[in-house]
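Input structure tokens:
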């Protein structure tokens, strides 16, 4: 049994991060003491700032907003929501301006800058980073683990800028130099700066490992993002047909995951009128969801396309099992998408749901190699529709693929893959 302490950083609220949950659980069960440092979300009621997940695994959520900013935001909301409070604050403010014009003028400018410009973003993010670093340094861990580039500076400062340096693990879940929202060259330069200062690196698959080797000259450890093996009987039995008014006779064509740009969801909705049968259900939330809902209304597809908000990660398998087919139709908008091995692909497999998938190397290797679905041109809605109709028209092929999923899940599961993950720590 190990007794080393680990400080792991992740830049989210840790409410739906399945990969980080699996890694922390695996380490804690092996005897490591794991503290996960993430971000608190004040808008999510009941979300604790501290959780003891098991004897060796604790979650610490640092404050999201600086206290001063939070007070300013509360005051601003109260003023906009209640005209009498707003009027009272305005009278007091004007009175103070009359008595101390220079001071109050400066405070007015600062309030505008902090609430209405990009300075607010810098202030918020900078404060989160400092709180994460303070936690990392204060408790003096043996190993520091950064999930993705956005927590690597925190982990580096905590582990290396000290008299007695600690081990540093860089766990890159994405291709940081070519991904959505990371267009600035600053990300490339940042990763290049830190890459020679880490002790070991983990990436999601061998396609990305080869890409990393071309960029930096070394081949990192590979740990695939496979889900836990599903037990024969789920803890919950969830049917969302009643929630969405879907007839028991209708086949559910399922997408689960982020409703984001580049996931092929616009093409998927375009393909719906060409499907021979079935209801498309999208489970998840994201930036382009309102836009997709407008598209559905414009195309008058409300009876054929349904939306559900994201569900807790531990409940997701109970939803997935409702699918007749599942979709993973990423678009090739950057190397991060092209090289993805996609957690949701394996979630479908784990629930015996055949997949309509994009023809990208890591995904195609599994889908066609294990015969668990059909690969299509994810940029062409007609190709998506052809793949769907092929399985709708040939139920015996679909059933064979569902049975193949049952076999594939014995290979593509976290119980097997975590051995590779734990080996990374054993080698340090």
């Amino acid at each position: 049994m190990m007794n080393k302490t680990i400080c792991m950083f992740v830049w989210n609220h840790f409410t739906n991060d399945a990969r980080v949950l699996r890694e922390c659980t695996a380490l804690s069960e092996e005897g490591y003491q794991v503290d996960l440092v993430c971000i608190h979300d004040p808008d999510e009621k009941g979300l604790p700032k501290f959780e003891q997940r098991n004897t060796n695994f604790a979650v610490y959520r640092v404050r999201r907003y600086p206290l001063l900013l939070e007070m300013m935001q509360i005051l601003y909301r109260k003023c906009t929501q209640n005209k009498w409070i707003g009027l009272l604050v305005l009278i007091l403010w004007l009175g103070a301006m009359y008595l101390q014009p220079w001071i109050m003028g400066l405070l007015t400018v600062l309030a505008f800058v902090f609430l209405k410009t990009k300075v607010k973003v810098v202030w918020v993010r900078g404060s989160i980073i400092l709180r994460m670093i303070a936690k990392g340094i204060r408790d003096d861990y043996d190993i520091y683990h950064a999930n993705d580039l956005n927590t690597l500076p925190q982990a580096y400062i905590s582990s290396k800028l000290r008299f007695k340096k600690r081990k540093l693990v860089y766990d890159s879940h994405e291709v940081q130099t070519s991904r959505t929202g990371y267009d600035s060259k600053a990300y490339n330069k940042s990763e290049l700066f830190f890459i020679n200062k880490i002790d070991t690196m983990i990436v999601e698959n061998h396609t990305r490992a080869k890409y990393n080797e071309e960029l930096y000259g070394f081949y990192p450890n590979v740990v695939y993002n496979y889900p836990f093996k599903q037990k024969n009987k789920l803890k919950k039995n969830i049917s969302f047909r009643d929630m969405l008014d879907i007839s028991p006779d209708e086949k559910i064509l399922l997408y689960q995951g982020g409703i984001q740009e580049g996931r092929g969801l616009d093409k998927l909705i375009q393909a719906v009128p060409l499907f021979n049968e079935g209801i498309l259900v999208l489970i998840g939330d994201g930036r382009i969801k309102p836009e997709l809902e407008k598209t559905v209304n414009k195309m008058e597809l409300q009876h054929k396309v349904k939306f559900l908000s994201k569900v807790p990660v531990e409940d997701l398998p109970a939803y997935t099992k409702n699918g007749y087919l599942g979709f993973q139709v990423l678009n090739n908008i950057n190397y991060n998408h092209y090289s993805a091995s996609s957690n949701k692909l394996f979630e479908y497999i784990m629930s015996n749901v055949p997949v309509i998938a994009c023809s990208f190397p890591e995904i195609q290797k599994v889908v066609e190699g294990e015969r668990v679905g059909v690969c299509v041109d994810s940029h062409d809605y007609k190709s998506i529709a052809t793949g769907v109709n092929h399985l709708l028209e040939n139920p015996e092929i679909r059933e064979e693929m569902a049975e193949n999923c049952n076999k594939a899940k014995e290979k593509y599961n976290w119980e097997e893959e975590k051995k590779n993950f734990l080996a990374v720590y054993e080698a340090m």
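Residues 119-138 form the longest helix (20 residues). The CA atoms of residues 64 and 323 lie 37 Å apart.
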